[in-house]
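Milestone M4 deliverable, item 7.
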Amino acid sequence: MARVTLEQVVKRFGDTVVIPRLDLAIEDGEFVVLVGPSGCGKTTTLRMIAGLEEVSEGRVLIGPRDVTRVPPGKRNCAMVFQSYALYPHMTVRENITYGLRVRRVPKPEIDRLLAEAVRILGLEEFLDRRPKQLSGGQQQRVAIGRAIVRQPEVFLFDEPLSNLDAKLRVEMRTEIRQLHRRLGNTVVYVTHDQVEAMTLADRVCVMHRGRIEQIAAPLELYERPANTFVAAFIGTPAMNFLDARYQLEDGRPSVRLGDGSSLDLARGIPDGEEGRPVRLGVRPEHVAVAGEGTGFALRVREIEPLGPAKLLIGEVAGERFVAQVDAHLPVDLDTLCHLTVAPDRIHLFDPESGGALL
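Output delivered:
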């Protein structure tokens, strides 16, 4: 187990800078997930930790060791890939122990490490099967078993569940989290799936264009996003954004929307900022049905059933808005649905920088 530190790391491909000055510290035994849209730099960051991509500037440390120029095989990291990368002609037993045999580890030690790995992963009955005889989830467990027997200080996962169906992804998320609790190794995990990130991580690192937008515990990201990018990326369906202005209404701090409706705020308005433009953020699941003449009106253009709830999709003050309401709420298309939001569920952002105001 070891702390992973990236200090002022830069990555260039030719003249193109894909990672500009990144600092990241992952504590010993911590499970950190790098998440973001395609092309945000998360896989490149992981590959620089592994040594599969050369660092253009800066340093990579694993524990106290500077491994910036150390070859991948000597960094004591084990990487699990999206593609499993199993040898099709080898059995499960042979795939898991291949690296140990190449390093000429004594057979009793190989047998001990193999037995421990297959017990943890529930692979005992599959040891003599070949990859084509296994399901996708079983193949991924074999790939993880191959990583476990190396006894690395750091596990690196590169979108390991993206080839699995939805049911298997849920099952494998649980298995990976339980594996981390048993072994206690440092884990760096890359995914584009924010549900994976939120369910697995001790901390989630949200990346965008090679930069870290915010790194925090999952609940903190959800409840206190640092900016509009994080607010929009974390949460399903995505947060709604509306143009608004600070105002005092009968002495109460509030925001006024473009259609003239207003919502009370939980905190006061900064001195001298009444009338200032702001960007209002509201999560679809935080709206509540209101009486006519209160809150704001959603013009319903589409309805999507979700089982216990349904999504009302339409416009508020001329901007797209999605509300999640009870499945049995009687609502028709092209009608107005009056909604409100509790003051402590309102997010406010600077309309120019996108940074959080409250």
